[in-house]
């Protein structure tokens, strides 16, 4: 298999992405759309198309920051090691690395196997998105997997000094905290993607992330433990508060009608009254991962995400 991953290239965040067409061609090839490359020839020849490409690049880089967070969380918990250096280089701040994270002593082989699959999927998502972006891909920012979880758990009202790496179900609660954010982020970005090819790929990743979230919610519910049901309700309420919308629900049946709709005995699928998946704007996503409304950094990204110029364009395009 040909290695299409980018080399370590540095440029200022404010500059225009370099060789975007090379990244686009790699993306087409990886997604199986090589035959339609001709349709995109000259796509950067006028300002309108250039602006559209900028937004798609910003969306993919925004997603890449979130994939870095999930990839580090799952791979450190399952395998005890983080992402390799060749998957974390790129544009923007580098250095400082990942704070926290350790291998979990899983006691349930079903949980271990499921989380190993998710860890592998997240690594594949990172490889795929970086191939799509080529030299325009942002580097992995500084990530907190220690104090960020402690602070979020405290804000949610979880008892004790929460450590997501303590055991199987603590790890599932940590996964619950992060993965739902990725699902809503992809769903919220979809209407603003201008390329049908990019939209198709992003929709596929959204579906995979939704599968992951459904698995996590099912594994937690299968324990028939009131603590886990209550913990998910507390985590969801905190994310909704940060988001500023009623866009989150725990796994208990009492959570299934928070936004209306028919009551259910369990709430595995996190949806609105029409049973549609929730969506968040980029600003709402940042509120959750930064741990405060309107924040520019903090929480799981102590120094903010990389690609701030693209994030600013994305916020302006999506209305925040």
TrEMBL record:
It holds the Pfam family Ferritin_2. This is Ferritin-like domain-containing protein.
């Amino acid at each position: 298999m040909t290695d299409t991953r980018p080399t370590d290239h540095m440029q200022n965040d404010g500059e225009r992405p370099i060789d975007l067409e090379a990244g686009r061609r790699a993306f087409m090839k990886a997604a199986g759309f090589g035959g339609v490359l001709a349709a995109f020839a000259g796509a950067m020849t006028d300002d309108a198309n250039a602006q559209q490409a900028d937004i798609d690049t910003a969306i993919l880089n925004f997603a890449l920051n979130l994939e870095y967070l999930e990839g580090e969380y799952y791979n450190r918990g399952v395998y005890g090691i983080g992402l390799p250096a060749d998957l974390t280089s790129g544009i923007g701040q580098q250095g400082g690395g990942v704070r926290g994270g350790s291998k979990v002593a899983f006691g349930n082989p079903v949980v271990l196997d499921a989380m190993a699959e998710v860890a592998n999927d997240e690594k594949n998502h990172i490889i795929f998105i970086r191939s799509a972006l080529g030299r325009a891909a942002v580097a992995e920012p500084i990530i907190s997997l220690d104090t960020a979880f402690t602070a979020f758990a405290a804000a949610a009202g979880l008892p004790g000094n929460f450590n997501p790496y303590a055991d199987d179900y603590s790890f599932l609660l940590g996964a619950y905290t992060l993965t739902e954010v990725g699902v809503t982020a992809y769903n919220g970005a979809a209407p603003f993607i201008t390329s049908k090819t990019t939209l198709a790929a992003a929709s596929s990743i959204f579906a995979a992330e939704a599968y992951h979230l459904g698995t996590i919610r099912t594994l937690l519910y299968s324990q028939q433990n009131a603590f886990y049901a209550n913990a998910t309700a507390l985590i969801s309420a905190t994310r909704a508060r940060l988001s500023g919308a009623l866009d989150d629900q725990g796994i208990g049946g009492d959570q299934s009608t928070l936004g209306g709709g028919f009551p259910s005995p369990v709430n595995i699928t996190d949806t609105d009254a029409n049973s549609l998946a929730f969506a968040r704007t980029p600003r709402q996503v940042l509120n959750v991962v930064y741990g405060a409304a309107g924040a520019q950094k903090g929480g799981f990204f102590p120094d903010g995400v990389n690609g701030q110029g693209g994030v600013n364009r994305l916020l302006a395009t999506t209305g925040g």
